[in-house]
Design a protein that fits this description.
single chain, alpha/beta, five-stranded mixed β-sheet, 26 helices, 11 strands, 51% helix, globular
């Protein structure tokens, strides 16, 4: 069997691309350079040449595939239904298999983050606790104000400036492993706390549980959940992604759950494809398929069970909504968040120009490609200014942090909140919640 992953790829997947060019105006990198190789069509042609044995996986190919954001806007635009995500992941995995990037500091940072910290949930939380102490003791403020951060190695300095504000308490310090539905129990769901979501946005997780309970869902949240593996799958480590997927599947009693809920757009796009990831694993293939059937984004789930909210009279301040790329393009969840926000805000919800254009976060893209990420963030902030909104809602931790950094750096006074936080605030303020009966969601 040829070890080259692109040559192993089902050739019909590579042939899906008709080279029509409809993806070109949706691709942030092609729009920036106008170079064919920086487009989805150009990248697919290069992958096909490798599959045909006409080209090799080299550093030039590696640089191109890591210049791609993986935002999947091309998939939304494609009339042929090209599975770019599949090819993109296999291309990066092949790059790492043959070590096409070569030596450098990158090797150490991949080992530390991808292969070590994010592989062990207890170590990840320990790292989070150390970062919290670094922040609350004032060391971060001291280092930044003194300019010492400029003396750090370039990559470490970039990481420091991107450090999220870590919460004092993580998810299961805020709610129990089993939370009972408010009123009649209509569903039982599992809840995924995530990695960065748990460390930096545990309050969003608590808000999500509040909303689920109000919607008649009892919520089961297993302790010490590992990373979902999206970081690994998107960065050329499929075996590590499979290991993490097995770990998550083992934690959840899938047979008696109506759904497994995620509230992070980037994670959700990966979480819904465990079936493909573990298709060749005889011990997990069947349960991975069941996982895919039950995994739901929180907005998608609330819409499916007929969630309704009647907010109390409140502020007339306007707000807007930024689409997480992997929520709208990767999962096709675009209208459901807007439906919920319109119930809360009505005409105060202002549509964001280019709402589904990538903000530049794209996993760790803002660290690996800071220049291009910065250009995308500037474009996003400019569009946010046009709305005149006082708050922007978004449903992905990477987007949340990226928008906060961009708004703060531009001196724009605009809050960034998860839609579940807005819903939970409304519920706590006395909003009336109901769900129309939908028997198709029952076990």
């Amino acid at each position: 069997k040829d070890p080259n992953l692109l040559r192993q790829l089902d050739y019909s997947v590579l042939q899906q691309c008709m080279h029509c060019g409809m993806c070109l105006p949706t691709c942030p990198t092609y729009t920036e350079t106008k170079l064919e190789r920086n487009s989805p069509r150009g990248r697919i042609a290069w992958m096909r040449a490798i599959a045909d044995g006409e080209a090799e996986v080299n550093k030039a190919f590696a640089d191109e595939m890591y210049y791609c954001l993986g935002c999947l806007a091309c998939e939304t635009a494609c009339p042929a239904g090209v599975d770019y995500a599949h090819m993109f992941e296999d291309a990066r995995a092949e790059i790492e298999r043959v070590d096409a990037v070569g030596p450098g500091q990158r090797v150490f940072w991949r080992w530390l983050a991808v292969k070590t910290i994010f592989m062990h949930p207890r170590l990840l939380r320990l790292t989070g606790r150390m970062l919290w102490m670094y922040q609350v003791l004032g060391l971060q403020r001291l280092i930044r104000r003194s300019g010492l951060v400029k003396l750090l190695p370039k990559r470490l300095g970039e990481l420091e400036t991107q450090t999220p504000q870590i919460k004092k308490r993580f998810s299961l310090d805020l709610f129990k492993e089993r939370e009972i539905a408010v009123g009649a129990e209509r569903y039982t769901v599992g809840f995924l706390t995530g990695c960065i979501q748990d460390l930096a946005f545990s309050d969003v997780n608590a808000d999500t549980v509040t909303v689920l309970k109000a919607a008649g869902c009892s919520v089961e949240t297993p302790a010490y959940q590992g990373c979902c593996g999206s970081l690994h799958a998107h960065n050329g480590e499929p075996e590590l992604a499979r290991k993490l997927a097995r770990g998550l599947i083992d934690l959840f009693p899938l047979e008696r759950l109506d759904a497994v809920i995620t509230n992070a757009g980037g994670c959700g796009s990966h979480l819904k494809h465990f079936g493909r990831l573990l298709a060749d694993d005889p011990a997990y293939a069947e349960r991975a398929h069941l996982w895919d059937q039950k995994c739901r984004d929180i907005h998608e789930w609330l819409d499916q069970i007929g969630f309704e909210v009647e907010p109390i009279a409140g502020t007339t301040e306007t707000m807007t909504y930024h689409d997480s790329c992997h929520l709208c393009h990767g999962q096709g969840v675009k209208q459901q968040p807007r439906k919920l926000l319109r119930k809360l805000k009505g005409e105060q919800l202002v549509e964001l120009p280019e709402s589904d254009w990538c903000c530049g976060s794209a996993g760790i893209y803002n660290i690996t490609q800071p220049e291009q990420a910065g250009k995308l963030l500037e474009r996003k902030v400019a569009n946010l200014k046009k709305t005149g909104a006082s708050c922007v809602a978004t449903a992905n931790p990477g987007c949340h942090l990226q928008l906060e950094n961009g708004l703060r750096g531009s001196g724009v006074s605009m809050e960034v909140k998860h839609p579940m936080t807005l819903l939970a605030e409304s519920i706590r303020a006395g909003a009336i919640v109901s769900c129309r009966e939908n028997l198709t969601t029952k076990k």
